[in-house]
Automatic annotation (TrEMBL):
Pfam families: Mo-co_dimer, Oxidored_molyb
Region (Disordered), start-end ranges: 1-22
Residue spans of biased composition, Basic and acidic residues class: 13-22
Oxidoreductase molybdopterin-binding domain mapped to chain residues: 117-301
Protein name (record): Sulfite oxidase
UniProt keyword terms in alphabetical order: Metal-binding, Molybdenum, Oxidoreductase
Gene3D superfamilies with a match to the protein in the record: 2.60.40.650, Oxidoreductase, molybdopterin-binding domain (3.90.420.10)
Domain of life assignment: Bacteria
Keyword Transmembrane helix belongs to the record: no
Protein's UniProt keywords contain Translocase: no
The organism's taxonomic lineage, starting at the top: Bacteria, Bacillati, Actinomycetota, Actinomycetes, Kitasatosporales
Length: 437
């Protein structure tokens, strides 16, 4: 985090009880409006820094009652994480690709990766409310007088079921280092920060209309009920990220079922946002409230995080990330062994945020020659396509398996990805090491 002119609230303090913070926030919000309207000079403060600052101070003053503190030894993830299924990274758990072998198109809930900024809150549907508020609703209801929906209210509305992946923007991040020699920050996921599920829920568009969506609305910002996120000593508030109204009205769900079961605690029970084809951070779990705004919204999750920074990107970063990139993975352990002279069937999956998968080419000789894989799913957007290819290795030794996908938007996986400091959106062909014995 850049140093900020406004002192961050000390962890454990209730910032909203500090009157000076309220004044600062009112001031900052006015400045932000003026600045966006071209009236304020940034006085040497970068756009990124200013946005970060405003987002952090706004968050600190607008919090629902904090959750009770968790015991220090309470695990961040509720479901079992057997080591043959998951690689643990702190509060996160990555699915092992070899564990997906033989599962169907949809990832079983028990196997689905978990990305938690803090820890899974165990909530009850009975007490849960969705609160909608802000200047983008008719009458501009404040946070203290929101439009409310209970769990049963949502379940009573017409539902939609759709298959979609949730994939972390940092999926594949480890390969920036292992394949490209780059130093990047963040969880070193290999390729297992993705899962595909059948999500059932209510279109966000229907709930927004029932809440009194105004024609002036431009952004919506769902916020999670998990604990506030503290990063670099700064309290960034609860996990939240704005979404343009156009996407919110297009295909976003308030999901309460995952593969035919109520959402598991770790995946957002009782209700999560599901934003098809976009980076995972957009799909806010344990959603508690949604700000609907007539002005653009900012949070650290669209200013500091989830933009591309680095020498090859604009000085203040790229636009906030939206669609996921294109990737492929083998349903194999790293260093899997194969008997020479025998016929093997290699299995894998490819997916893209920009369209369906049009073709997949596989190399079993480290990238020298390529053969098209057989596709097993009718390619569809927002989900992966399973594929296979036969292989009869001849000579014992180590080699690399490579898979390169092309999507219906004509994107093909490159040999290298232009790096960014936070290691997002890796899309290069991954070299999967195997041994022939
Ligand atoms: N409230 C809340 N929502 C969240 C997160 C979080 O930590 N808190 N993590 C986000 C990120 S970064 C990702 S990749 C996805 C992961 O969803 P999953 O844990 O169900 O796989 O949830 C997103 N939604
Ligand atoms: Mo993520």
């Amino acid at each position: 985090m850049p140093p900020s002119a406004v002192p961050p609230p000390r962890p454990g303090t209730r910032p909203e009880t500090r009157p000076e913070t309220r004044l600062e926030t009112a001031y900052d919000r006015r400045r932000l409006r003026q600045w966006l309207a071209g009236e304020a000079k940034a006085d040497g403060v970068s756009r990124r820094h200013l946005l970060t600052l405003l987002a952090a101070t706004a968050a600190a003053t607008a919090l629902p009652a904090p959750l009770p503190a968790r015991a220090a030894d309470t695990p961040a993830i509720v479901k079992p994480l057997p080591p043959e299924w998951f690689i643990q990274h702190g509060t996160n758990a990555e699915t092992r690709w070899e564990a997906l072998r033989g599962t169907g198109h949809h990832t079983p809930n028990e196997l689905f990766f978990v990305r938690n900024h803090t820890a899974t809150p165990v909530l009850t549907a009975h007490d849960w409310r969705l609160r909608l508020w802000g200047s983008g609703l008719r009458g501009s209801p404040g946070e203290d007088k929101p439009v409310e929906f209970g769990y049963d209210d949502l379940r009573a509305l017409p539902s939609v079921t759709r298959t979609a992946f949730v994939e972390c923007a940092g999926n594949g991040r480890a390969y920036y280092t292992t394949q490209q020699g780059e130093t990047v920050s963040g969880t070193p996921w290999t390729l297992g920060a993705i899962g595909v599920a059948r999500w059932r829920g209510v279109p966000l568009a229907d709930v927004l209309r029932r809440a009194g969506l105004s024609s002036r609305a431009v952004d919506v910002q769902p916020r999670g009920l998990d604990a506030e996120y503290i990063s670099g000593g700064e309290n960034l508030g609860r996990v939240r990220r704005p979404l343009p109204l156009s996407k919110a009205l297009h295909d976003v769900l308030l999901a309460y079922e995952m593969n035919g079961e109520p959402l598991p605690h770790d995946h957002g029970y009782p209700v999560r946002v599901l934003v098809p084809s976009w980076v995972g951070i957009a799909s806010i779990k344990w959603v508690g409230d949604i700000e609907v705004s007539a002005q653009p919204l900012f949070s650290p999750w669209n200013t500091t995080f989830y933009r591309l920074f680095g020498p090859s990107h604009p000085k203040d970063g790229s636009a906030p990330l939206t669609r996921q990139t294109i990737k492929s993975a083998f349903e194999l352990a790293n260093g899997a062994t194969f008997r020479a002279g025998e016929r093997h069937v290699l299995h894998g999956r490819s997916w893209s945020g920009a369209g369906a998968i049009a073709r997949v080419d596989v190399s079993t000789d480290g990238g020298t020659s390529w053969r098209p894989a057989r596709l097993h799913d009718r390619p569809r957007p927002d989900t992966w396509t399973r594929w296979s290819l036969t292989w009869t290795p001849r000579t014992p030794g180590t080699t690399h398996l490579l898979a390169r996908a092309t999507d219906t938007a004509a994107r093909t996986q490159p040999d290298t990805t232009v790096p960014n400091t936070q290691g997002y959106l890796f899309d290069a062909v991954v070299r999967h090491p195997v041994t022939v014995v």
